[in-house]
UniProtKB/TrEMBL annotation, chain A:
InterPro entries: AAA+_ATPase, ABC_carbohydrate_import_ATPase, ABC_transporter-like_ATP-bd, ABC_transporter-like_CS, P-loop_NTPase. It holds the Pfam family ABC_tran. The lineage of its organism: Bacteria, Pseudomonadati, Pseudomonadota, Alphaproteobacteria, Acetobacterales. Keywords: ATP-binding, Nucleotide-binding, Repeat, Sugar transport, Transport. Residues 4-493 form the ABC transporter domain. One of its GO terms (molecular function) is ATP binding. This is Sugar ABC transporter ATP-binding protein. It comes from Ameyamaea chiangmaiensis.
Automatic annotation (TrEMBL), chain B:
Signal peptide: none annotated. It comes from Ameyamaea chiangmaiensis. It is found in: Cell membrane. It holds the Pfam family BPD_transp_2. The keyword Transmembrane helix applies. Keywords: Cell inner membrane, Cell membrane, Membrane, Transmembrane, Transmembrane helix, Transport. The complex is composed of two ATP-binding proteins (LsrA), two transmembrane proteins (LsrC and LsrD) and a solute-binding protein (LsrB). One of its GO terms (molecular function) is transmembrane transporter activity. GO terms for cellular component: plasma membrane. This is Autoinducer 2 import system permease protein LsrC. The chain crosses the membrane at residues 32-54, 61-81, 112-132, 138-158, 179-200, 231-250, 262-282.
Amino acid sequence: MSVLSVRDIRKEYPGVVALDHVELTLEAGQVHILAGENGAGKSTLIKTLTGLVTPDEGSIHIEGQDALAARGLFEKIAYVPQELNLFAPMTVAENMFMPFSRSGFGTVTVSRRAMEKAAETFLTRFGIRARPRDRVGQISVPDQQLLQIARAACRSDFRVLVLDEPTSSLTAKETAHLFQIIRALRDEGVAIVFVSHKMEEIFELGDVVTVLRNGRSVGTHRMTEMTEDSLIHLMSGNNIALDERFQPRCEPGEVLLSVDHLCGPGVSDASFVLRRGEILGFAGLVGAGRSELMQTMFGFRRATSGRCVLEEREIPRGRPDRAVAAGMVYLSEERKHHGIFPLLSVRENISLSILDQLTSFGVVSGRKEREKTREIIASFDVRTSSPDKKIRFLSGGNQQKAIIGRAMARRPRLLIFDEPTKGIDIGTKFQIYRIMQKLAEDGVGIILVSSEMTELQRCASRIVTLYEGRINGTFDQATTDINTLVGAIIGARESRHAA
Amino acid sequence: MPPDTIIDTETPPQSRATTARALVARLSSDPLGGVVAALIIIFIVACCLSPYFLTRFNMTIIARSLAFIGLVTIGQSLLMILGELDLSVGAIGGLSGIAGGTLMVQYGVNPWVAVGLCLLLGTGCGFINGTLVTRLRLHSLVLTIGMAGVYGGAILVATKGVAITGIPHEISFLGAGKAFGLPIPFIVLLVCLLVIVFVMQKTPLGRYVYAIGSNPDAARMLGLRVAGIRTAAFATAGFLSALAGILMVARLGSAQPSIGDTWVLSPIAAAVIGGVATTGGIGSPLGAVLGAVIIGIIENIIVLFGISPYWQAIVSGGIVVLAISFDAVTRRFLNKGV
């Protein structure tokens, strides 16, 4: 008997059918991959499995019993959401065992010592580099991510573990460790649901895959029967050439941006140039200072010394408004914190950067605004039921496309993409690569910060590597092999090259 | 859009049922629906409770007293939409009023020049608040508690707690006079409200205010001049408080040190009743002023009813809580439908 079976469920939101007759069966001791493009319905399906969303039609059975009738059964499903969801000012142990009455560490008073002792075992097991008494806000983001998984797994009564893109901020080593843990849990008979956009992970970990497309399940297959091509084909419904390259097909021109000895918090003595017509990639470990460097150039963080010159105009320190006025646009990795305006509609989010161009006599013209945003929504393929929908209800990929559309509307001279394809499906990814390539060929400077080596190799003309806040190498993409790059990223000395 | 909603409630009925249904549909689709519905209900209840409520005399009283608190409410709601709060608006209003009075009475400055200087002072006080908040990156709530002490203290230093009497008659019509059958302060309120609503709904600047309130980091990343807009909003709130302060001085014919004492908390309550979120990004100054109308009617009814002064605070506070809950419940109900 299957641990969990979903039969024929349908969920409709105003204007969208999120799930349309979806089927899913989870078996004990299997890693079940859930694949699909952004907006295919993965999140809604997961929320249905965990009892957060009640389907309009269909049934959910957990170990043979009807879970929609006896909702207590949903407690057997442990869920690790994609976003960090911890209590930062509290300790690691407290986070792990809250609510205390349920974990058995306190009904009236909390038995702190016993709890911290119990936490130790989980910390070791999950390889979390923190002590039970540390404040969660002070441990690193990967550790927080692992803690979140440990928190779900420390309850012994769960039969299903749902992991929604758990590796998005983990390094390769941490990911490998996490996979060991997942396999161990699987061998103990837990059914695992794993959502990821990373092909290597899907093929490394998965036993079975269910593909969703536009809210429908298009099939469940054994991973051994699948190839990368066939899986992508199932997800997107059309063919994508995996070996396609996106380097701009033109010779680099004059210097567009030059950064001289820039210093600031997390950035020491960074110097580089960007030429017209090239895509400059930035590689480095999580925490190597890539985003810090970009944000310091852009003025979002204040530089302590050094210069940043765009087309012979110096960008003043700590003034992102002046950087934007000079033609620099920064697309942050933190879409939720730095990108979208959650309370505003898709239309308002998009038009915000160009409102000054949409006015007549100082008044925003509703007609111009609607026309312009409709145009952007169409040309960037933002999928929304209406432009007046609040942007926070869109899937991550569609939010990202809306933000890119907004940035492009200003006709920037320099665009900085900071992890533009984080959590984004492969079809959309390639759309973004094509946009970058086209822009670079049109003479717009493009900087691409990425943790994915394949992404940098696919798009960048040159790659700058950062290690502990310093630039430690610049490589020509065409003549450099991946080992040299990886060497530079992890700070191996002999990899130092002259640019 | 929102003004239509109010007018709609007064259109002559073709048939009662269809009008009612159209009204409900209108209210449920508009963000101001909750507060307008609450206002209508409270108005009807007030009419039923006291025969003296719906009289020209009483309406004038409500309109006049609403004007002062309403002006402060506009400024405060602006800041709240930005995600800020200014607890020194009352003290700024009082200080500006006192300064105006002192200039006119003790220094013999031309009353109109004095009014101008007093508005400038209020704007300046707001500007200082805004500059301190943005430059030093202070929490506006805490900073303005301190600034309320500073400005409030300045009132006491200047007056030693004694009212300044003998305000010139030239300006007393500003507080006591009428035009087009409406009290002048109320007209000032309408004009200010109109200007601010126009800016908030029709201009890029207004949109930027909502964007900053919704996500200040993203607004900075987008290149909006967040610090400048914040400072300007504080200055505007200061200006509106000073306007309320000087109108109050004109109304009373004397500059009382206690002016503005009650202008801190009820505008915040009014804004929340009117649908402005304390966390920023949501609501409108119009809604906030409608919230102030609700509070004004409640206070008026308490007086008309002759409730013992000892009980007044409890009753008016209780009704404010009811009004907020009513709004929250309607909104949840309406959201389900959408």
